[in-house]
Design brief:
The chain is an all-alpha fold. The protein has helices spanning about 1-20, 25-35, 40-45, 50-60, 70-85, 85-95, 100-120, 130-150, 160-180. Helix 1 packs across helix 6 and helix 7 crosses helix 8.
Length: about 180
């Protein structure tokens, strides 16, 4: 029952996000749309931001883990194409929540993927774990900037071409940074 109720709440939130900016969505609108009590909502979620976190995890979970960290670029393409297909929802979120929160979502959603990518490239090289972590952090910050630019450009960028170019740059930067010194 619990999983069923959470699914209904998430689906209702998704529909509301398509129709209106995040800042206009209320717990009252969600419970009315779901036909549940306020207590039921708060049993599952602490507040609207907790629901947002669960919704984002659900949406990002649709892309799963790539077969290898070297496939990060294909996963990125899928996610950007999905953003474009759900443009209203993305902009309803983007224009309603703080830039820090968006950065946090992008950063955390790419954390393991980028770290694994850099770690795989570092295998067999005399590179400290601290350097691997620092390099992965730099790549993630670049990815945040890349994503924000994509949003600023109205999602009109050629996704496949721009991600391919980013991938070439990442490969070059990571390889050069991991060279023995």
């Amino acid at each position: 029952m619990s999983n069923f109720t959470e699914t209904i709440i998430l689906n209702t939130f998704d529909q509301l996000l398509e129709a209106m900016p995040f800042e206009k969505i209320t717990v009252s609108a969600i419970i009315k749309g779901c036909g549940i009590s306020r207590n039921t909502f708060y049993y599952h979620y602490q507040d609207i931001y907790d629901l947002l976190d669960a919704w984002l995890q659900n949406e990002l979970g649709k892309y799963g883990s790539p077969a290898a960290a070297t496939d990060w670029d294909e996963r990125m393409k899928e996610m950007l194409h999905a953003c474009r297909q759900n443009k209203r929802k993305v902009y309803h979120l983007y224009n309603s929540i703080s830039r820090g929160r968006i950065e946090q979502y992008v950063f955390t959603s790419t954390n393991d993927l980028i770290y694994d990518y850099v770690s795989q490239r570092a295998e067999g090289k005399a590179v400290s774990p601290t350097r691997v972590t620092a390099l992965a952090d730099i790549c993630r910050y670049a990815l945040i900037g890349f994503f924000l630019r994509f949003l600023w450009n109205g999602m009109n960028d050629d996704i496949d071409t721009s991600v391919n170019e980013l991938s070439i740059l990442f490969n070059d930067i990571v390889e050069r940074s991991l060279e023995e010194r």
